[in-house]
Amino acid sequence: MLRRLLVPLVALVLVLAAAPHAAGADTGFPSVGRNWGAAGPYATAVDVGPVTTLYYPRDIAQSPRRHPVIVWGNGTFAFPVVYRDLLLHWASHGFVVAAANTPQSNLGISMRAGIELLAQRNADPGSVFHGRVDLDRIGASGHSQGGAAAIVVGGDSRVDTVVPIQPGPLADADAVHGPMFILAGQRDSIVWPALVKAFYNDADHIPAIYGEVRGADHFTVVGAPGPFAGPTTAWFRFQLMGDEEARGEFSGPGCRVCADTRTWSDVRRNPLALQVPGL
After folding, report:
1. What is the predicted pLDDT for the residue at 108?
2. What total of structural domains would you count in the chain?
3. What domain range is 137 assigned to?
4. Taking every annotated instance into account, which residue ranges of this chain make up the domain PET hydrolase/cutinase-like (predicted)?
5. Which of 79, 105, 110, 155 has the fewest Cβ atoms within 10 Å of its own Cβ atom?
6. How far is it, in rounded angstroms, from Cα 193 to Cα 189?
């Protein structure tokens, strides 16, 4: 009862939080002309550490701007190399991706360790990341068990937005405080779309969008990420880079993902997501 009474009072705050760095933001990242699925303008590099693998713009040390962060959680028995193409894709668009080197990511401990590692590197004058990591703009994502971990980490005050991909069941969307774009696969027989919709339905306190990728099974995102690359990139560019060209993919009456029935078998936006203005 108390929650139902509070929701109308905080709705405006949450709508503004749906694009925490978008409206009026100018982070200076180059436009990609809505080509979210194509490689971005940055050459990339990989740094494999004992706990975290970093995927990042290769010339970040010479960058004139600070780069947002995405922390990543793997599926069960998987490691970052399994998702290398997707993580490098995000890095090519200017993100620093901290991927947990664990096949058991559900608690989100290693994902949080990625944030802490980047905070250390950002503060280290001898690091290529020195002063180039935007720790005020952090997203979380992951696949399967790692998707559940992204929801868990979404309760961390440092994390602005989450993109769980076919998330496993061991998480609670009630703890997430930022906007969520949650993805299912139409033909996923391991994490059924109905299970992903349950997370979406539970996220009535935040702006949330549910997207079900047409024809996708549980492993479509593995290797070449195909239909998952473009929409997730657009979401993170909007939420963490203030890319206004990406706003219309998700917001307003012209919502492009809503109209794209070739890519999506089902798209839903909850009432708070519907309040986010379009262009």
Report:
1. 94
2. 1
3. 2-23+41-274
4. 53-241
5. 79
6. 9
